[in-house]
Design brief:
Distance between the termini: 46 Å
CATH topology of the largest domain: Beta-Lactamase
Number of domains: 2
Shape: globular
CATH superfamily of the largest domain: GAF domain
Number of strands: 6
CATH architecture of the largest domain: 2-Layer Sandwich
Strand content: 15-25%
Length: 270
């Protein structure tokens, strides 16, 4: 082993064990003790007292500088961890988007349809349980735009599907907007303002839960269209949509739990 190799090993050890931090703080403490022990207000001249206080102020500035540097390092590490968690979230959302696109392609659905994925969040009290928006896909860009970030567990088709594991609602073809809003308010626990503000007033809606390996509900998929479906198509979708979701659930459930853990870690660090 060469002398340079030995120096490098010692250097890496000191960095890993934070030896330099110990030496730095140790030297500051020793300097302060020496100042205190050597200070004699009775025998010191004015200039010596001024020098003593000046030295003490310099040391205090060093302490503040060391503390600020440590805080900057901690903030930098925290920012790095948050960025990593955000990257995980973005990558998972990309994977979810591929699966949602697969659902539309499987049924050969047109641009009047969209499919959305929500995760169940029960970290608060029971009355605060909610669904958080995760991802969405549609062939029409205006239907992809994210609206509400969350839904109450007792609201809309998403709430009905959660209670019963699956649910569907098909509105009549010539329903007026006033009738539509009235149904959402009286049957699906929407306020008038919430129902009126919905950008996509869907006439065909299907929902199905996603179960994890312990058969616990962790998320839900909502498939909806602005178009009316005839009886034959309604029967087909009611039969095949739950089957498809059950088939892809083994792939989605684990990813949703990972996504949920990732969000929780972001909240803790944030």
């Amino acid at each position: 082993m060469s002398f340079n190799d030995l120096i490098e090993i010692i250097w890496r050890f000191c960095l890993r064990k934070k030896v330099f931090n110990w030496l730095r703080w140790g030297s500051v403490i020793i300097a302060i003790l020496l100042l205190i022990l050597n200070f004699n207000s009775e025998n010191s001249t004015i200039s010596e007292i001024i020098k003593w206080f000046t030295s003490l102020l310099v040391l205090l500035q060093m302490i503040i500088a060391f503390s600020d540097n440590k805080l900057q390092i901690e903030n930098s590490e925290l920012t790095t961890r948050l960025l990593r968690l955000k990257n995980i979230e973005d990558n998972l959302e990309t994977i979810f988007n591929v699966w949602l696109q697969y659902i539309l392609e499987y049924f050969e659905l047109d641009a009047s349809w969209r499919v959305s994925l929500y995760i169940f969040d029960d970290r608060g009290k029971d009355e605060n349980d909610r669904f958080l928006f995760v991802s969405r896909y549609s062939k029409d860009p205006q239907f992809i735009r994210k609206g509400r970030n969350e839904f109450k567990v007792n609201q809309g088709i998403i709430g009905k599907a959660w209670q019963n594991n699956k649910c569907s609602k098909f509105f009549k073809k010539d329903i007026s907007e006033a009738e539509y809003v009235d149904i959402l308010v009286n049957k699906y626990n929407f306020s008038f303002d919430e129902a009126s503000a919905l950008r996509m007033k869907s006439k065909s809606i299907l929902g199905n839960v996603i179960l994890n390996n312990n058969h616990l509900k962790v998320g839900i998929v909502i498939l909806e269209s602005i178009n009316f479906l005839n009886k034959e198509k309604r029967l087909e979708m009611n039969e095949k949509f739950p089957e498809l979701i059950d088939n892809i659930t083994p792939y989605l459930s684990g990813l949703l739990e990972l996504y949920s853990d990732n969000l929780l870690n972001q909240e803790r660090l944030g």
